[in-house]
Amino acid sequence: MRNNGRNLLVFDSAYTYEMLIERNLESFVTCRDLDGLIDYVWSINPLADAERPYGDPDRYGPPRIERLAHRHTVIEGRMGRTRYLRWLMPLNFVLAQVSLLVTVLRLCRAHEIAIVRAEDPFVNGAYAWLISRIFKKPLMVGVWGNPGAIRRDTGRPLMAKAFRTVRVEEAWEGKVLRAAATVMVQNDDNASYVASRGVSPARIARFSVGNALHGAHWVDPLCRVTGLPDLVALGASGIGTVLCITRLIEEKLPEHAVQAVAELRNVGVECELVFVGDGGMRESLEVLATAAGIGDVVFFAGGRDQEWLARVIPEASAVVVPLAGRALAEVALGAAPVVAYDIDWHSDLVETGSTGELVPFADATAMAGALGRLIEEPARARRLGAGLRDRAMGVMSPAEINREQAAAYERLSAGGW
After folding, report:
1. 145-181, pLDDT tens digit by residue?
2. Is residue 316 within 8 Å of 240, Cβ to Cβ?
3. Phi, psi (degrees; rounded to nearest 5) at 340
4. Cα–Cα distance, 204 to 220 (Å, whole number)
5. For residues 218 and 228, is the Cβ–Cβ distance under 8 A?
6. Sheet of 7-11: strands edge to edge?
7. Helix axes 89-110, 123-135, angle to 10 degrees
8. How far apart are CA 134 and CA 105, in angstroms?
9. Gap between the terminal Cα atoms of the chain
10. Residue 385 and residue 394: Cα distance in Å, rounded?
11. Could you give all domains of the chain from N- to C-terminal order, each with its CATH number?
12. Would you say 253 and 328 are in contact if contact means Cβ atoms under 8 Å apart?
């Protein structure tokens, strides 16, 4: 196939190559070629091995290069250039990042890159901004949430290890957003935040998550294989099951799910909680659950593949959503009853009494009350879940999303594709 130079360079730290393969998340990356509009996509993860222990030899070495699909290659930066310098991590980390940068520069010189894209304005934004400046290519930056609201609620920068203070992070974020030719957002809330940082409406493009979802989530829940055996294998009963699909990190507020289920159990509602996802808070959540007297009904599934999720989601009596991105879309397509905090894009899909229950942000007691109603009124819960799926199907058509994103790329390239 002839390459017309419609090549895309993407900096994205959401998933490692290993995660993409193990969890069947390839579509999260392969959707970026827009069914062939883009000739080739290189996805760069500068911090791929950040969660590996210091003693793991895979944490060190030259950049890792993996072919993911016909039009896609993943390049991963290491956290250290050599294991012999693991006791001098700042120097070792800098050497590893320099090695990654050299690899990317060589790639860009060997191939005609049309657009440089970053999935956040922070570390990925720094790399993308630099490459776009060196090669004089248009820069696209994604803001998939509301960083201002999260920083306000936590009092911390989103990337505390890279930016020591909120002020420093905000300053860098503003610099990258001002440099971007296009800022990608998912919804009106994200767009409002970006506009508040001085980005004109003409430079804001909406990129929905629908075309990035695995095909298993589009199957009618009534036609899916039951996920009850998967829940039982964890030790759960599958009765009164509350799912929380999230990274176990502070920004996602997973402890609120524990608090809500504990309140329900204290008033006699039979329910159990299943976390799906990994993160550094797992141990503290186990301690919290034990202290609340519900340690025996809180289960940790860890990271799971998309087929597992597609089976299990329809089995939930309710799904609790403190703060979610792609997971909310997956849950919606699974027609699961949802209780979500009123923050970020949740209200795009969840409307109280119609497609779920939307409760005030960070109000775990309100969340518990809404969960209890869904568990104790299963017919109503099923109706809300069906309404949620209908709404998601109406706004997340992959074909329509591809057309909208293609138009955004065409505008950015000034018709040169």
Report:
1. 889 988 887 788 988 888 889 999 999 999 999 999 9
2. no
3. -130, 150
4. 33
5. no
6. 64-69, 72-76, 40-45, 7-11, 113-118, 139-143, 182-185, 204-206
7. 40
8. 9
9. 16
10. 14
11. 7-213+397-412 (3.40.50.2000), 220-394 (3.40.50.2000)
12. no
Percentage, residues of the chain above pLDDT 90: 75
Q: Provide the pLDDT for residue 1.
A: 42
Q: Which of 102, 112, 113 is CA-nearest to residue 46?
A: 102
Residue in this structure with the two tokens 């299990």, named with its chain if needed? 312
Higher per-residue pLDDT: 164 or 74: 74
The three-state (H, E, C) secondary structure of the chain, written as one string: CCCCCCEEEEECCCCCHHHHHHCCCHHHHHHHHHHHCCCEEEEEECCCCCCCCCCCHHHECCCEEEEEECCEEEEECCCECCHHHCCCHHHHHHHHHHHHHHHHHHHHHHCCEEEEEECCCCHHHHHHHHHHHHHCCCEEEEECCCHHHHHHHHCCCCCCCCCCCHHHHHHHHHHHHHHCCEEEECCHHHHHHHHHCCCCHHHEEECCCHHHCCHHHHCCHHHCCCCHHHHHHHCCCCCCEEEEECCCCHHHCCHHHHHHHHHHHHCCCCCEEEEECCCCCHHHHHHHHHHCCCHHHEEECCCCCHHHHHHHHHHCCEEEECCCCHHHHHHHHCCCCEEEECCCCHHHHCCECCCEEEECCCCHHHHHHHHHHHHHCHHHHHHHHHHHHHHHHHHCCHHHHHHHHHHHHHHHCCCCC
Buried-state track 216-241, b at ≥16 Cβ within 10 A, e below 16: bbeeebeebeebbebbeebebebebb
- Bridge partners of 113? 7
- Residues shown for the chain: 417
- The two structure tokens encoding residue 243: 């799912």
Q: How far apart are CA 251 and CA 150, in angstroms?
A: 7
Question: What proportion of the chain, given as a percentage, has pLDDT over 70?
Answer: 98
Query: Strands 338-341 and 357-359, how do they pair?
Result: parallel
CB distance 266 to 297 below 8 Å: no
